[in-house]
Specification:
The protein is of the alpha+beta class. The protein contains 4 helices and 12 strands. It comes from Novosphingobium taihuense.
């Protein structure tokens, strides 16, 4: 009888301990540092040389999936704020929050992403020009493609943005007035020029 009472008492004690455990918050699976990388830097932000820190809060469902994201501290640049929530929703995974009974439940997780321009991006604009030229063949394929950059950071630009490496193809070739496919050389140019202004 004493042994049965002791066993019953032990079971009740364990049950009470389990019922009284502390709730836990949602915890990221893996490093949040991989949710956004320099390769994810929005092109508009790169062009405008925008940087900033974005604080966010994400709601996590009982399966550990984010189901909503809100900005709780803006970078001041909407493009960076939007990119932050987009990437978090796409890549973040969590161990779900748990209630006092150990059951998975909805939770929240807060953090911040600091957007810093990659080292090869100059924070001041410099004169440069870019030229993309290629032959668009009769079957819509691209041949003899050349991408040339001159000016500041030309070598770095060529590495990260050589449009000839995309192996793109047009759906349709150029056609003459009779509708017959013809071969054309296409040349696209862009340039950035600086001019002194009297103050």
């Amino acid at each position: 009888m004493i042994k049965e009472f002791s066993l019953l008492f032990a079971l009740v004690a364990l049950s009470s301990a389990a019922a009284a455990r502390e709730p836990t918050a949602a915890v990221p699976i893996g490093s949040p540092g991989w949710w956004a990388t320099s390769g994810d830097y929005p092109s508009d932000a790169l062009k405008s040389k925008l940087e900033g820190t974005v604080a966010f809060r994400v709601k996590v469902d009982p399966d550990g999936k984010p189901n909503a994201c809100e900005i709780i501290g803006s970078s001041g640049a909407p493009v960076l704020d939007e990119a932050t929530c987009f990437l978090v929703m796409a890549r973040a995974k969590f161990y779900p929050a748990r209630d006092a009974k150990g059951q998975a439940t909805e939770g929240v997780y807060s953090n911040a992403i600091r957007w810093i321009l990659p080292p090869n991006v100059s924070k001041t604009l410099s004169p440069k020009s870019e030229t993309l030229t290629f032959i668009l063949d009769k079957d819509g394929s691209i041949k003899d493609c050349r991408f040339v950059v001159t000016g500041a950071n030309a070598e770095e630009t060529m590495k990260g943005k050589n449009l000839c490496n995309s192996h793109a193809a047009f759906n349709e070739p150029y056609r003459n007035a009779d509708g017959k496919a013809v071969t054309k050389r296409v040349t696209m140019k862009s340039s950035l020029e600086l001019e002194d202004v009297e103050e």
